[in-house]
Amino acid sequence: MNGAARVVPGRSRALRAHRALVAPALAAALVLVGCSGSEGGLAEQWEETSDQGFVSGDRSSISIPRAERTDPVRFEGITEYGETIGSGDTAGSVTVVNFWYAGCAPCRAEAPDLVAAHAEFGSDGVQFLGVNTRDQEAQAVQFAEQFGVEYPSIMDNQGGRAVQRAFAGQVPLNAVPTTLVLDVEGRVAHRVLGQLAGESQLRTLIKETLAETEGAEPEGAASESTEQ
Questions:
Q1: 3-state DSSP helix/strand/coil percent for the chain, to nearest 5?
Q2: How many CB atoms lie within 10 A of CB 27?
Q3: Containing H/E element for 27?
Q4: How far apart are CA 48 and CA 106, in angstroms?
């Protein structure tokens, strides 16, 4: 023996056969994962992908004219700090709602943009609320401390995902992160599917919604675009 590994013919043939069987299955699985961002209801999407990680959005941004908005969204939940908060607390204010969880890479990447917008518009009465779709309280608190998030998040990963279902009846959310801007009546005015393009994008959407309270129809309110 010269120390080289001895090849067993039968095992080699079996290995090649195993690879031949596994390769098509793996390819099929990759196709399914690649299609996981297809259109669907928010609650259904989160349930289907609860063990797969985030569903990657395309960063499309949709703005809904006031005359075409649906009814106000009613929701309520418990935050990572054990406090109850809901639509009754945000009524009368422009509100930013961000769906996220700590292990979602795009959520982490956009966190500084949300923090900056909160610091800029908090004094104008704009409210911010996170909806955590996956974590336990300790993870959410750690995330908030790491990124300097000062607004609360509803822990919506248990109890039937009530908040996600409430918004699913209004807009077809199907990605984490997703950011919504609600008008003062609690209706969805803007939606960004996937990671925010930057703080400037969120700032523009907030300013457009704030302008409505002053009786001015913001430019581009009926626009639909995709940020690359």
A1: 40, 20, 40
A2: 10
A3: helix 9-34
A4: 19
